[in-house]
Amino acid sequence: MHLSAESGGSSRDAMADFFVPVERTLTEVLSEHPGELVKTGSPSVVCSALPTHWRSNKTLPVAFRVVSLGEIVDGTLVTIKAGNDENYCAELRNATAVMKNQVAKFNDLRFVGRSGRGKGNGKYY
Q: Cellular location of this protein (predicted)?
């Protein structure tokens, strides 16, 4: 996006205005669900918070969710990957779900084997 000096603003200010609505939406969603959802590497995607420690091959206490703040067509397949400093690519079971109403719900997501989930620091989504 580019605005000329005649239009009353610099292109830097215009870009800041362009990104504010998305950030506001992200802030609103996180404040509506405190402790339930966390930011990801993408500004338009949030996901469920994971327990700090969980035994391998056990179902999570609640269904893991990926929520899109942008428009995603219903029926889109969503596949997740996980890792940390110890294991950059954990082995997951049931790591694919279908997007419906901007939410992909993973009912039986499991970390298999030595996924590195036992360490609470350095999780990547």
A: Nucleus
pLDDT greater than 70 at residue 95: yes
Measured in whole angstroms, the distance separating CA 34 from the mean position of its chain's CA atoms is 15
Cα–Cα distance measured from residue 50 to residue 87, given in angstroms and rounded to the nearest whole number? 16
Q: Please tell me the pTM assigned to this model.
A: 0.66
Note whether 35 and 49 are within 8 A (CB). yes
Q: Please tell me the distance from the alpha carbon of residue 40 to that of residue 124, in angstroms, as a whole number.
A: 8
Inter-residue contact 29 to 46 (CB < 8 Å):
yes
Give dist(CA 45, CA 31) in Å, integer: 15
What is the largest distance, in Å, between two alpha-carbon atoms of the chain?
62
